[in-house]
Design goal:
Elements lengths: L3 H5 L1 H16 L2 E5 L3 H13 L3 E5 L24 H12 L4 E5 L15 E4 L4 H14 L3 E5 L10 E5 L9 H12 L7 E5 L9 E8 L5 E8 L6 H20 L1
Length: 251
């Protein structure tokens, strides 16, 4: 008798086989950041058949998210992204195991146990650097989004090791590379980057104050990038593709 999950993933199995599908079911992947990049990444991982996902985000859907984020609709404005994805992912696979962290990732976080892969879609520099450093030190494979904002052309995205990023003309990416290098990390992090020159008609910044679940206060300057419907979504798909491909290849 064919089970519900077998039927859900039958088309996947026609490509990579049942053994690989069973392997994906046994894996635990964490996705940090559920915006334009991370949202498409986590959904693709669920549709690929990954058995356990940890999803981390502190934010709620805003009107300005609707142009590019997969769970952003007028009906979901002001709702927690983690809760929306919990409902959505279980609607894709009722048997999926989900660990929900509705909080701002910061230096007080510990990486979950038994992680097979991390997808980094964080857009605040300090948190991103801390996560990437933690993955390297813990020897957890990680892929990081480095260049979805201020761009329109998804065909200029590519996957490489961080040491091989071709262009560092985006200050955000350059600063991350610089800070990681100060920590002795120059390679060993897979990234989705872009050859496209960043473009934004206006520089918008604001001071953000976020209270974490343990009562701590996080303050930082938020730079608002231009964001189109095309690049962030494709970057998330690239990340999910790479993770699944690596798991199947090594399996």
């Amino acid at each position: 008798m064919v089970s519900l999950t077998d039927e859900i993933y039958s088309r996947n199995e026609l490509f990579w086989g049942k053994e690989s599908q069973d392997l994906l079911k046994s894996k635990h992947i964490a996705v940090y950041g559920l915006g334009g990049v991370g949202g498409f990444c986590v959904e693709a991982l669920a549709r690929a058949g990954v058995g356990e996902l940890t999803i981390v985000d502190f934010d709620k859907v805003s009107i300005s998210n609707i142009n590019r984020q997969i769970i952003a609709l007028h009906s979901t404005v002001d709702k927690n992204k983690t809760e929306l994805f919990e409902t959505r992912l279980k609607d894709i696979n009722p048997q999926i195991k989900l660990n929900i962290v509705n909080d701002f990732y910061n230096e007080n976080f510990n990486l979950p146990q038994n992680l097979d892969y991390v997808a980094d879609a964080i857009d605040t520099m300090r948190s991103k650097i801390h996560l990437l450093e933690g993955c390297v030190n813990s020897k957890i494979p990680v892929i990081s989004s480095m260049g979805a904002g201020n761009r329109i052309d998804p065909t200029q995205l590519y996957i490489c090791d961080i040491k091989n990023i071709k262009s560092k003309n985006a200050p955000f990416v350059s600063n991350i590379i610089y800070q990681l290098k100060k920590r002795g990390i120059e390679s060993g992090i897979t990234v989705v980057a872009s050859d496209e020159k960043p473009h934004c008609l206006e520089k918008i910044s604001s001071e953000e104050k976020i209270t974490t679940s343990d009562g701590g206060m996080i303050e930082f300057t938020k730079i608002t990038p231009a964001s189109t419907p095309f690049v962030a979504s494709c970057a998330g798909i690239f990340m999910a593709y790479h993770i699944v491909s690596e798991i199947i290849k090594k399996g």
